[in-house]
Amino acid sequence: MKSWRAPRWLRAPGAVGGNVQTIWPAVFSRHWPEAAPRLKGRRERWTAPDGDFVDVDWLAEPPTPQSPLLILFHGLEGSSRSHYAQAFGHWAKAQGWGCAVPHFRGCSGEPNLAPRAYHSGDYEEAGWILDKFMQAHPDGPRVAAGVSLGGNVLLRWAQEAGHEASLRVRAVAAISAPLDLTAAGHAISRGFNRQVYNRMFISSMKPKALAKLAHYPGLYDAQALRQARDLYEYDNAVTAPVFGFADAEDYWVKCSAGPRLIGLTGVPALVLNARNDPFIPGGSLPRPDQVSSWVTLWQPEDGGHVGFPGGAWPGHVGDLPQAVGAWLAMHLR
Q1: Closest CA to 173 of 98, 253, 257, 107
Q2: Has 277 been annotated as catalytic?
Q3: Which residues contact 58 (CB under 8 A, 6 or more apart)?
Q4: Active-site position among 108, 148, 176, 256
Q5: Which of 45, 64, 196, 298 has the largest CB neighbor count within 10 A?
Q6: Structural domain harbouring 185
Q7: Domain tally, the chain
Q8: Which of 222, 255, 288 is the last residue before a domain boundary?
Q9: Do 249 and 119 reside in the same domain of the chain?
Q10: Which residue in 55, 180, 277, 302 is the catalytic one?
């Protein structure tokens, strides 16, 4: 995956390649190289410390108490139904591993109870979730992967946890994480990105935030929320006031994992970013001299944003979990 290339039929230069390698696998490709049914799995509801709930979908049950467990943190407005989650679930099942997807609040298909939702640096919630998995699966080794927003959250948790992180997981992997939230936030608000990706996210997030406001009047400025047209304006209106940041820029700076990779210690971390990712500028990605010895960087030229499609048309997304899963498995020995 470090030097991964898209199949010839989905290869294109520059931004065109990044966009088709992002959109096509998410919409049209199979979840696994062979035909396989969608994984639904078993759902558990965990009560959070504030009395709210977090829904966890077990896409693959651990065959034994000693079996490895993969914990997958999804991306912005993602879920266990996302194409990448399904792919990791199929991979784990084929390996004899368990695979569980904890949903960020509001993403499991049912509105949450408390005022808080989730954000790109919510490492405290991630830490509580990983503690719960340690209790739920104490005898088997655990690893964690995070996709896009979930990848940044997972890295921020590892950075804060330090050597304590190894008590909860053997290794972590971040896939297409927006390591520089300022660079990514501005990139997604321009041109084609604004019309496609930004619009998709905002159309999902705003109705949830308006529904939350109906239950908690005054939680944030309703007019500012209704006028929000991009992630910057949304984060200014909602994320910043709910989580105590001064504004969107303050939130982005304080929650970006990239600048803190030099200080990550205690748990091996894989950081995978395609250099043609449409809304994570290649220039914002860390260099090898900007990360600690605990961090492995994979930065292939192709892949898009959580794309990495493989195989013959219409393709599949199995290459991603196979490569990342193999790297995680190395740290179970």
Answers
A1: 257
A2: yes
A3: 41, 42, 43, 44, 98, 99, 100
A4: 148
A5: 298
A6: 181-255
A7: 2
A8: 255
A9: no
A10: 277
